[in-house]
């Protein structure tokens, strides 16, 4: 099934004014937090072609939805995502990536809520997010190693940037399972919570981020990503360029502070 055939089935789901009605992907927004859910629990949320297109549309919607400030990425049921659906093998190398969104860059913060397995392409989707909240019994791993499937959704690039070259090679070459505690020690998991609590914890984290002035949340986030791999001198120039776009917000914040808001660390957790 081609993009043209799928897209011809209905309205543009990336349009925030159109109800998001998709067979295997859900998009729900409450206040400023949008939740994108892979809804194939019987397949451990493995991604087939239809699901990849749904993820593409959901994250495009998130990026254009002015009411959505932070995105949470999760899977229905007991697992985050087991990667590509190897029983179907119907994915295509699209502009946005094999799994639908791995080459997309959204302009707002994203958080993965990881229950159970985030393995193979599921690990790559979790790495696509800015932060990861994992259950105590969550498992990460390049499980595609045993089947000879390459990492083509960002794993070879994002994983070493996050955990370092040695640890990334450990995961990529061996294909071994990395449990939540080790993932947290490495910085692969940013928060570890009780099983069944990851979505609630990710929502809470997202809501806290959404409370901050969003202009500087986004410019600082963009400066960090744009500066990766650059020299310090170039990185400082990138930071300055992004920072100048937030000077109005900074002036407003300084005025609030001068009026007494936030004195003594109030509002900081």
TrEMBL record:
Q: Which Gene3D superfamilies match?
A: 1.10.287.2460, 2-enoyl-CoA Hydratase, Chain A, domain 1
Q: What are the leading ranks of the lineage? A: Archaea, Methanobacteriati, Methanobacteriota, Stenosarchaea group, Halobacteria
- GO MF, one example: catalytic activity
**Protein name, entry field:** Crotonase/enoyl-CoA hydratase family protein
Protein species of origin:
Halomarina oriensis
Mark the transmembrane ranges. Answer: none
What PROSITE patterns does UniProt report for this protein, alphabetically? Answer: ENOYL_COA_HYDRATASE
**Would you identify the family this protein belongs to, as annotated?**
Belongs to the enoyl-CoA hydratase/isomerase family.
> Which Pfam families does the record cross-reference, listed alphabetically?
ECH_1
């Amino acid at each position: 099934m081609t993009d043209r055939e799928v897209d011809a089935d209905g309205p543009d789901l990336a349009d925030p004014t159109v109800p998001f009605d998709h067979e295997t992907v859900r998009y729900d927004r409450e206040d400023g937090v949008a939740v994108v859910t892979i809804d194939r629990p019987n397949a451990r949320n493995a991604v087939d072609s239809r699901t990849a297109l749904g993820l593409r549309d959901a994250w495009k919607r998130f990026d254009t939805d002015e009411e959505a400030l932070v995105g949470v990425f999760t899977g229905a049921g007991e697992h985050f995502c087991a990667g590509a659906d190897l029983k179907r093998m119907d994915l295509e190398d699209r502009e946005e990536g094999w799994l639908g969104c791995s080459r997309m860059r959204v302009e707002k913060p994203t958080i993965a809520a990881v229950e159970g397995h985030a393995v193979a392409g599921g690990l790559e989707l979790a790495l696509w997010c800015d932060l990861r909240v994992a259950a105590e019994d969550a498992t990460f791993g390049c499980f595609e190693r045993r089947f000879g499937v390459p990492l083509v959704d960002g794993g070879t690039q994002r994983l070493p940037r996050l955990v370092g070259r040695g640890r990334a090679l450990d995961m990529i070459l061996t294909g071994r399972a990395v449990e939540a505690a080790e993932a947290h020690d490495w910085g692969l998991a940013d928060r570890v919570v009780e099983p069944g609590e990851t979505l609630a914890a990710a929502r809470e984290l997202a809501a806290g981020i959404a409370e901050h002035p969003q202009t500087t949340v986004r410019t600082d986030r963009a400066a960090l990503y744009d500066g990766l791999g650059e020299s310090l001198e170039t990185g400082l120039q990138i930071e300055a360029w992004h920072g100048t776009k937030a000077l109005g917000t900074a002036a407003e914040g300084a005025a609030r502070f001068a009026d007494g808001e936030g004195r003594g660390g109030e509002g900081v957790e």
